Predict the structure.
Amino acid sequence: PASGDDLGWATSDGAALLENGFRNYNGRYMGNLSALCFSRIPALLPFIKSLTLTSVLVLIQKLTFNRSKTFLYLSAFLLVVPTALFKQAFVWTAGFANYYFSVFIGMFNIYLLLFKSDTTGKKNFVRIVLLFALGITGQLFMEHFTVAMLAFSVALNAYDYIKDRRLKPERIVY
């Protein structure tokens, strides 16, 4: 059963926070909005959590070039997470919305930027808009996530410039 913060998101307290734009709350706008939505659809929440965790595992596999040992080691980290941390990040709906969901968005962005990059030199407008939207959305979950993704973006653009003496549009907008 919902309790504490999760119960607050599912009641009029959550709606009141939304009405005032989460003013003076915590700045995690997408995390708050996700927690608000997730807490109001408890029957679908196990499916959303399962799909998100499975997607993270699939992205780990893709980002490790399908190397089975690396994939197994990285996946094992998800299984050996201390129970207290697991409860905070997966069982607690607001924690899931802020932590797992942002990890999924970040990994999906990295996958798009590293493995689905435009190698033809053509500027794909839809792709650029998608990466821009996902980049902005990802920043509205957690503060430390914003810093990590900014560092990744700077490093990726520096790598492109050093390697090719040019910058790729989709990586600039991200």
User: Anything to note?
Assistant: Residues 93-115 form the longest helix (23 residues). The chain is about 75% helix and 0% strand. The chain has a mean pLDDT of 82. The two ends are 39 Å apart (CA to CA).
